[in-house]
Amino acid sequence: MFALTSVPRVALRASAPAKQWAAASQSIRHASTLKEAVAEAIPKKQERLKALKAKHSNTSLGDIKLDNLLGGMRGLKVMLWEGSVLDAERGIAFHGKSIPDCEKELPSAKDLGLKGKEMLPESMLWLLLTGEVPTADQVRGLSAELASKGKLPSYVEKIIDSFPKTLHPMTQFAAATAALNHDSAFSAAYTKGIKKAEYWSPTFDDSIDLIAKLPAVAARIYYNVHGKGDGKQAIDPNLDLIGNFSNMLGYGDSVGMTDFLRLYIAIHGDHEGGNVSAHTSHLVGSALSDPFLSYSAALLGLAGPLHGLANQEVLVWFKGMQESIGQEASDQQIEKYLEDTLASGRVVPGYGHAVLRQPDPRFSALSRFYEQTPELRDQPLVKMVQQVSKIAPVVLGRSNKIKNPFPNVDAASGAGLTAYGMTEMNFYTVVFGVSRALGALPNLVMARALGLPIERPKSMSIEALEKSLK
Question: Which residues are catalytic?
Fold first, then answer.
């Protein structure tokens, strides 16, 4: 079986005459399932890694300075992550494709005959795992596979139902995810004695199973804590992953909310491997913990206020601004409020980024959605988000201390959820958690396919540093 063509389908259609395209289509056999496509992609990756090791194993990637050690290892090139690369100037690229590229090329809801027009997270998952743009039929098959595996086992439902409503949704989410490892294919195979070269296969099976079930876990928590949703986590085999997720949450009648969730989850899925949630899944997985345990740990990292909770802080700040200067504030009033925020020693949440030195393309994608969606365009909160995004970079840019004055994705993500009626901010990070699995779990599959070792950096005490630096 041949791998999916490396030439983008859009480019082929645009440049090839009709007869050539027909002939090319007949000569290419597409993998019918994602697992087949991954199996085809792995040998190529293994050969490329083998060649790198043989030629460059002693090549330096840069010096480690004390600032790196004490500054959270920021910027150090010490991790292999296949799904995406984050560049300070160009932004995020998924196997070389930017977010605008993905929006043009990845199969969308419309391509599958569904209501809506945004790219599907299933399409992004296929790209992240294989490096190839899937066909609409391949995505349709993947959607059906995820739907068939989406129902929760009764014991997990009982575990979720036993949690007090006051327990934070992210704590519930992580605990329920860990409990799903009861049926881990990888754990069972490892116990029986599987060959190391085959580790990737049951890791893939667990990962797909978990991605399929995360929406139901999240929806049951939403229903128990906030009383919204169908309370049954019913799954329609004819819908895509997010179509079912939206139904479970009680927003299935809103084409806008469903499409917004598709975009939100697709663009939040992967953001290089160094962020806390992605790195945690990689670290725990390197000990050969199964995907359920590895991703449960990742969710606990995502729950921190310096990571996944950031969009809540943005909304709190925006609501404070609305209360102070009103919902229809002028540019001058907003500029003054921004200046007062900085003068008080506070930061403007949702602005700046650890890596990026340009506007976050994820923010741009959400901003585009808002502009193109009449029901959101005139929402007071959405209007203010858009308005601030034009003023804040100018105000922040006046400070020599601020390296990136541009909005990041957190500046926009919460506004859309709020505008569509999901006002429960403590649930936003759960939605983020459904998304981040699209990037973290494929990395686990590739880490096992490429035989990556357990992660074990060297640590040093202050005394040891003092002695070594004399």
Answer: 307, 353, 410
